[in-house]
């Protein structure tokens, strides 16, 4: 399996056995044959390993609770949510739908955090009725709405304010959220006044502070810069008599797609704890990881429909398109692509791996050296985060099935859509 770019390793649970790639103890070619392609396949062992990497021994933090709030948007499949829910996860959600999903997967409402810049009346009413843990409010206007609805319902809304710390997360601009020009959160400079207003509203219970500065962050420094900015505010709030019970340091921890070396969750937690201790803070600590809990557990299987040679370009045309996996088209994201069959008799050639959708941006990988034949199944690696959850029906294409592998077992956790479902709501 040569590649023009060195691939330091396959996905953690993908191994070469004989002439085939396996995920855990299951042949990927076998799965493609059994369930069809395109197909999202998750490794339960890796999901659990990634969950375990975020756990911090309780006896080492007697002074506070640490809650890991899985960001549902990264991969919202009920079976994946359930795996985390059963292990005590909190959930970071951004819509009524995500809250309902977390509840359907067995999460108690008091482990749900509700983020997002545009929470509607209906969504707030729903979340309040359920009794969620905290609203991560993103504007002064949202606080007024939260207060009104809570009073109307005879409740108090637990709130945290998302503060925009104005730090550079050093990631792709489309997934950077903590800079002054972003739509997210409340400006650091306005935060104190907005907190004071919130504290004066009888329908609100001010319990926390949060930020989220971006995604696929591969260095510690942006997190630490943002934390320090947040801690300044916590001190200022204290000085005016506003005591919080938790600090939510958001998500954003990156993963290895190619050669990145992101800090381990443990390192981030330890550095954050150090910062809190140095500041003399005993607040509970929340994190909202999405990608780092699911990205590396999954491969997207896709079959090569045709090989085509145009002028000086070779194309491997596959059956997964940007509607199935949009990250390359949207962010020019680099993902590993490997042939599930190891051929010694096929010479390597450099290909663009492109999909069936009628858009020039419909590619999965560019300039990759592959030993590939028509009919081969390719594995797109590290497809678990923002993969299926960002899929669509563009070009009237049914979305893929999802399969969960556990050892030698594989079971469908979302069946493939059928065409009639795609126009079932139309007249
Ligand atoms: N918390 C909040 C408030 C968020 O907005 C996000 C992600 C997360 C947590 C989880 O971030 P993570 O740990 O996954 O980086 N579709 C893009 C990523 C968008 C992230 C949006 N917000 C991608 O495919 O790269």
Low-confidence stretches: 1-8
**Termini separation:** 49 Å
Q: How is the biggest beta sheet arranged?
A: 9 strands, mixed
DSSP helical segment count: 12
Small molecules in complex: ligand LLP
Structure classification: alpha/beta
Taken from the alpha-carbon principal axes, the silhouette is elongated
**Quaternary structure annotation:** single chain
Short structural summary:
By secondary structure, the protein is α/β, with parallel strands linked by helices. It has helices spanning about 30-35, 45-55, 80-85, 95-105, 120-130, 140-150, 190-200, 220-240, 265-280, 290-295, 325-330, 420, and strands at about 15, 20-25, 25, 40-45, 65-70, 90-95, 110-115, 135, 155-165, 185, 205-210, 245-250, 285, 300-310, 315-320, 335-340, 350-355, 365-370, 375-380, 400-405, 410-415.
Task: Describe the structure using short key phrases.
427 residues, alpha/beta, eight-stranded parallel β-barrel, 21 strands, elongated, disordered N terminus, binds ligand LLP
Structure description:
With 427 residues, this protein is α/β, with parallel strands linked by helices. Helix content is 27%, strand content 25%. The protein has helices at 28-35, 44-53, 78-85, 96-104, 121-130, 140-152, 191-200, 221-239, 265-278, 291-294, 327-331, 419-422; strands at 14-17, 20-23, 26-27, 39-43, 66-71, 90-93, 112-114, 134-137, 157-164, 186-187, 204-210, 246-248, 284-287, 298-310, 313-318, 337-339, 349-354, 363-370, 377-380, 401-406, 409-414. Strands 4, 14, 15, 16, 17, 18, 19, 20 and 21 form a nine-stranded mixed sheet that branches. Strands 5-6-7-8-9-11-12-13 form an eight-stranded parallel β-barrel, surrounded by four helices. β7 (112-114), α5 and β8 form a beta-alpha-beta unit. α5 (121-130) packs across α6 and α8 (221-239) packs parallel to α9. The termini are far apart. The site of ligand LLP has 21 residues, from α10 and α11.
